[in-house]
């Protein structure tokens, strides 16, 4: 087990430039495909945010949460989802989409999940700029708490990579994994308190605890704290422990599978 | 005699699982792509691999390149091997120059190493002003030339060339041969897989003849090539019926008995 983890970490840290290059040129190639290129990196999330805001903010007329307006409260959490969602859906396909590279050259397969998550990180920064504009327009002012993003963003990256590590190998064993994940994504969105406040389930303490143990919700909380609540890192320590445990389990399981099947992946395509 | 071989196969077998359906009963057959192959290639030798279609040449090349692992037996490699893969890793949307960087990175080069080979690749591939055009605008010959050049500018100890020289026009093929001859003179070990008996005859010192996944012959090029061509001619002169019987018999010999192992065993073996 320790050998597997060391192998995956080794391979990832020895290939930093490779990871960076693959992510960079993948992004470039994706942008070249359309005429407007990078414009869509901004437009796509913007349209989605407007949709959710229209449905929940206007039609359902949600009141603000904890004294903050609904739109700025929702968007601060939603931008995390816009990062995690493509990371999970593309991450489980990370190895499969590179099948012609993996089968044709000696290639460190375990770096592929990281390349996908790094690529999405760029999109995330684009989205964050929109979030900054909205928050400032809604009255937030730059402050020291915004630096918390530098803590939560890498955590989101690590979580997404660990999860993709596991799902991408499982997806090689059975292509059904991806179908299942795609089907469950919408469920995951609504099961995570992103569009609704966790106070709504306050009557069921067990449900609250389960919700809070969700690593995605920990990062959502962190982003909200940075933009709105300004409470610092300490109040979220219990959630942080849950995050660490879950991420470690995912990473170790992913590494073991990766190590186990690294030479067989070509036969599984 | 520890260090004088480049590649050593020690009773290597590679098994694929075939699904077959007879009536309603589903059975799984296991099929030997390579069966008990042993040989030793000395350093600095140029080896051709001959064989009819489906005799295990490509499987051999992936095993040699370290992409896939043998199921039985062991392979020992002295030095670093590289499979020359022409069109892999080229991205249609990116320009030639970007592709050089991307493919270099995919192959695991560092930034300064890529800068060093870029000049040589451009010169060798003869793509001229197309360097700044997206690869999708290239002719297929140009694409292969670019891909091939990047591979040739690497500096591995052991080169594995699989049907690569059938690309490009005569002039380029000649240039490639010249480059390979240079590499040969530098004392690299080259494994050359081709259907063209002439190319193999002219270029290689020794040859391996694979038939039905088994090593038929390994020796000086002239002897093996002669035997092989007599065999192919003999095969061509057979009547259709005879050929079919021969093929079936060969197939029968390569399949193992039914796969009775449980799912768990299959996953972890």
Structure description:
- The complex is a heterodimer of chains A (269) and B (269).
- Chain A contains 13 helices and no strands.
- Chain A has 269 residues and is mainly alpha-helical.
- Chain A has one domain (2-268).
- Chain B is of the alpha/beta class.
- Chain B has a domain at 1-66 and 195-269: Rossmann fold (3-Layer(aba) Sandwich).
- Chain B is 40% helix and 28% strand.
- Chain B has nine helices and nine strands.
- Chain B has a six-stranded mixed β-sheet, with helices on both faces. Chain B has a three-stranded antiparallel β-sheet with strand order 2-1-4, with helices on one face.
- In chain B, α5 (170-185) links the parallel β6 and β7.
- Chain B is globular.
- The model of chain B has no long low-confidence stretch (mean pLDDT 80).
What's the helix and strand layout?
The complex is a heterodimer of chains A (269) and B (269).
Chain A (H helix, E strand, L loop, with lengths): L1 H13 L1 H18 L5 H21 L10 H22 L2 H4 L1 H4 L9 H26 L11 H25 L2 H16 L13 H9 L1 H15 L7 H25 L3 H4 L1
Helix pairs in contact in A: 1-12, 2-7, 3-4, 3-7, 4-7, 4-8, 4-9, 4-11, 7-8, 8-11, 8-12
Chain B lengths: L4 E18 L2 E18 L3 E5 L6 H8 L7 E6 L3 E4 L11 H11 L4 H15 L14 H13 L5 E5 L7 H16 L3 E5 L3 H7 L2 E6 L2 E7 H17 L2 H15 L8 H5 L2
Parallel strand pairs in B: 3-7, 3-8, 5-6, 6-7
Antiparallel strand pairs in B: 1-2, 1-4, 8-9
